[in-house]
Amino acid sequence: MSKDIRLAKERAAKKAVEFIKDGQIVGVGSGTTVELFIKILAERIKREGLDIITIPTSFRTYQLLAEYNFKIASLNEYPDLDIAIDGADEVDSHLNLIKGGGAAHTLEKIVDYSARDFIVIVDYRKISNKLCEKRYIPIEVIPIAIKRVTKELMKMGAVDVRLRGGEPNKYGPLITELGNVILDTKFKPLENPESMEREIKTIPGVVEVGIFSGRHVSKVIVGYPDRVEMLKRK
Ligand code: 5RP
Fold first, then answer.
1. Residue 168: band (very low, low, confident or very high) from pLDDT cuts 50, 70, 90
2. CA–CA gap between residue 10 and residue 183 (Å, rounded)
3. Which residue minimizes the CA distance to atom 5 of ligand 1?
4. Which atom of ligand 1 is nearest to the CA of 104?
5. 177 catalytic per annotation
6. Which of 60, 109, 143, 221 is 20 to 30 A from 87, comparing alpha carbons?
7. Does 114 lie in the same domain as 159?
8. How far away, in angstroms, is 89 Cα from ligand 1 center?
9. What CATH number corresponds to the domain at position 38?
10. Residue of 10, 35, 90, 108 marked catalytic
């Protein structure tokens, strides 16, 4: 990661930390920007002694929260969150998102949508006019349905569908924390992300799609190397 990108992520993360209040139940997303958020929030808690409970969206986030001695609970214990902070891979002008670069979007969507306030933190490279200009859409799929779902996605206009590979030391595809695979799918830039999200979710075998509707997003904090900008829905 370049120095400028790290700085941009750090600025967005630092701004998000300002929105956390004492006594809150906080959903914590996944990714490098969220990792910075966790670190900066830990410093603030040490300084100010806030008492919060965190709900992680992935095993990696859980590990990091544990390392920093956060109180950690499950969504079944606290199904209504005050706030959730998460990253994103692409953001359009209506605050619709593509997520799932870390293959964690199924748990992220459940946790993020359970929050009264869902704040997204990104660096400036993630902003697009329309979703799919820059990124493929990650779709979590039950393994026996890979071929079936691929055919349906092609019928819907997908121009490329790729089974996400595993880590260098893993033989075979990436397997998600829920035991599924990811089909990274390229469409032409999306005119109506919400209807695309709905349509993909009706394909049998699809567990979750990495399109998040802007209706669920309270604000997007965009970090630049020298400033932050706050995006609100148009
Ligand atoms: C993981 C995600 C991440 O939030 C997204 O990939 C952004 O990550 P980063 O902050 O590292 O750019 O959706 O599933």
1. confident
2. 30
3. 88
4. 14
5. no
6. 143
7. no
8. 6
9. 3.40.50.1360
10. 108
